[in-house]
Structure formats: structure tokens, C-alpha cells
Amino acid sequence: MQKQLLIIPMMFIAFIANAININDSKVTEVTVFRNYAKETRIGSIGLQSGNNEIIISNVSLYMDENSIQVATKGNVKILSVSTRTNYLTDKKKSEHILKLNDSVEILNDDVSWMREQTKAFQDELKLLDDNSILSNDKNTFTSAQVKELAELYRVRSIELRKFIFDLAKKQKTSNEKIVRIQQQVAELNGNQNTAMKEIVLKVNASASTQATFKCSYIVTNAYWTPIYDIRAKNVNEPLHLDCRAKVVQNTGYDWKDVQLKLSTANPSANHDRPILYPIYVDFFQPDYYRLKLKKSAAPAMQMMEKASSNMAYISGGLEDKVAEQEYVDGLKADDNKVTIQEGDMAVEYTIATVQDVESDNQEHIVGIQEIEMPAIYNYHTVPKLDLNAYLLARVTNWAKYNLLAGEANIFFDDNYVGKSYLNPNVSSDTLLISLGRDEKISVKRMKLNDFSSKKLFGQNIKETKVFETSIKNNKNTAIEIEVLDQFPISKNSQIEVSLDDMKDAQVTEEYGKLIWKFKLQPNETRKIKLSYTIKYPKDKQISEAN
Predict the structure, then answer these.
(1) Which domain holds residue 8?
(2) Most C-beta atoms within 10 A of its C-beta, which of 42, 247, 305, 309?
(3) What is the pLDDT of residues 198-225, one digit of tens each?
């Protein structure tokens, strides 16, 4: 029995002797996806011949244990891979927290010094108060002397009280700053879990060797989103696109000097032009029947809206419905900054210079690329909905820029226009970018009552409506502009709709839309008319609705 008891401890000691902790393993590469990241670690360690246990420490608590991949060089065979949680990790505080703590220390020193100054002033004030009573036992004072002493006491007393008052205000301000910083530190510390994961590798070395291990795994609490600045100097120059990424991580491990990769894989004052929807004419329905009709028509409306959403400006054709916000957010590789790798399902951008991204749940901006996109500019107005003209930039062959949906800051002629959003996922060769409204283009639309009418013809009523739109170019340069309007679409065979005046207009009858395109010289005014007639039985009422 004693023999067995001796053998067990010896085996235990031998096992411990071969347990090696790689404390200096470092995350050298990080691929950030839209909602997680992949960390890659590299470490080197000397192994004894036979079985060894290797511990990779300081791994994020948010690691996906099922995603671990390990590779090694040398005559080393990996026997097993497991994980465990270490709750005793003495985690190094982030540089941000250290700076905040330094600020608190400086402020505390300032407060302490102000307290000492206050005490000195208070002692002096007490000395004045204690000697403010004039004694007449042995000394006599003239009125002038009494006045002089009183004046001296008053001036100095007020001065000292002002010093004490000002110091109290400064202490209050400093103490408030200390509280705010301490609250921030507490929040940051709360986001930094002291517990860390450990990856345990059991390996077999055929001989004593220096082995290098490469370990990768998925971690949550990390993501990136694109941000963009789109600048247009004028309508004669291409668009300048500044592409950046906001990288956020709160994995519990600071990424220092890492090779950063960004992958597209996934494991709004309104500055957008208004959207003109079809209007329909039908017989008037009482509320009870109108509700029933609305429910029955819902599937058809959904199908129409879906079809409408797939329309776009293609080869000068009419777009029915572009995304409500149409700002660009593109990514294209620059040989000096980023390399690009396109796969079947995703695009990956590799940042050339190493990056630091602290685990602080804050946004870290990473530059990606600056490119120029050739564009065609023109103005667009929908006066029925909005008496403003919007400058649009059209970018053709935009797929080569590997655009992603996202927010962008828009600048025109060095002036900030606003924020908007672009959805590049449209079935079109042309990408529309709204550059905001132009106040120097005047737009008016009015119904011409003198030309509109409602008359009875036999058993039918003919109702004619005439509208006039006026556009004036108040700029000192000529502009290209398109005007979008509409006419009703009949949903009933007993209702006939005909266009009476559509001179120079492109007509899309399916959606009841008309578009005029023309050039306006400086200070030139152009008027266009829209006239249509609705014929329906005289015993019926009609209604026009979007």
C-alpha cells in the first residue's frame, strides 16, 4: 500500500513538470466581422520529449470554445484541446483607465492644496477677529486711528473671505470632476471582466524541441461598421469618397499592434429627395365597404410595392422607388493602405499598418481608402410633394467599388449638407447619391382652375384637371433638371383615365408617372403642364388616393 502511495505522487509531480504556461503568447492578427471577430495567437515554447501540457493564458472570456483551431510546427502531435476559466487573473488596466486614474490623482492633489490654502486664510481671519476689539485700559485711540484700524480690518477681512469663497467654488468643481471620472472608471472596469479563459493543449513531442503554436478562435463583443465622407467640389468633378471603419470591441483583451482585417461576411433634416407613389381612382366607398376593400387589396398593394422597389434609373429610364436615403458608403482597396480579397460571399480588407484597438467598448476609427468616383450630376424635383430641387449624383458601374450599406456625411462645395444612407443593394447599373436641396432653384406647382372642369356627357361625367409647374434657375450656371409628376391609375373598368397634355414627357403608364428632362440656362424659367381627364358613370362618386 505504501508503495502505491509513493507512485501516485511521483506521477503527479511528473505531470506538473510538463505543464507549461505560454504567458507571452500574443494576438497578432484579428479579423473583424460585422458582429464578431476572429483572433489569431502565436506563441513559441520549449517542449520536453514525451507528453506536455501547454496553457495559453489571457484569452477572452467571450471566446467560442467550439471555434478553436490550433496548428504547430515541428515534431509535435496535438492530442487534445480544452478550455477553462481563470477567475484569478490579475488583469492589466487599459491605458484609458490608467490615464483617467492619473487625472483623479492630479485633481485630488489640487483639492488637498486648496484645503491647505483655505486653512491658512481661515487662521488669518481668526487672528483678525480675535484682535478686532480695541482696549482702553492703557491705550487711547484717536478717532482717526480707530477709523484707520477699522478700514484695515474691513478690507483685509473681505479679501480673506473672497479667497475662501473662491477656493470653495474651485474645490466643488474639482470634486465634481473627480466623481464623474470615477464613475467613468467604474463603468469601464465593469465592462472589463477580470475572469479570462485559458486554452489547454495536450501534445506529444518526439524529442525535446522549440515549438511554435498558432491558435485561432471566434470571440463575440466585437464588430465594425463603415462610415464615409462623400465630397463633391462641383458638378464638373468626380465624387471624392473617404472610406473608414468604426471598430468596437469589448472582449476583455486589448488588441495591440495587430494585423487588422475587416470582413463583410455575416456567420435622417431630411436631405433625401421625396418619393412619389401612385394614386388610384375608384368609386367612392362608404367606410364599412372601404375597410373591407382595403383588406382585400393589401396583398396586391404589397406585390406592387415590391415590384416598385426594384425599379431604378437605368439608361435614362424611370425609377419608381429608390431607397428613401441614398448616400454612398463604398470600400475599394488602395495599394498603399489596404489589400482586398473578394470571395463568392464576402470581401475582406487587410489594413497595411498594425493597429491598436482597446477593449473599452468605444469606437475606434480606422482609415481604409480614399477614391474618386466619376459621376453625372443633375437636379431632381417632385413638386407635387416637395417644392425643392435636389442635386443627384449618378455613379455608373458602381459594383467595382464593393459598396456596403451605411451612413455617410455629405459635403458639397466644402459645405456640410447632412447625413444620409445608401442602400447599394439595387438591381441597377446606376447608383444615385443625394447631395441635398439647392435653394437657388425655385419650384412652384398650382392647379389651373380656369382650365379644369367637371361636365356631364350623357350617362357619364368627365372631370378634367390641369396643373402647371414652374421651375426657375436662379444660379449663374446652366443646370440639367428632371421633373417628376403623376396621373391616377384606374382600378375599375367603368373608370377611364386619359392624358390630355403630356408634351415632352416620358410616360410610365403602369405606375402613372411622367418625367420631364430639360436644361435650364441661368435665370431661365420653364413651365410645364399636366392635364388628364377621368370619365365615370354619373351615378357614382370617385376618390383619388395613394
Answers:
(1) 2-92+195-219
(2) 247
(3) 999 999 998 998 888 899 999 999 999 9
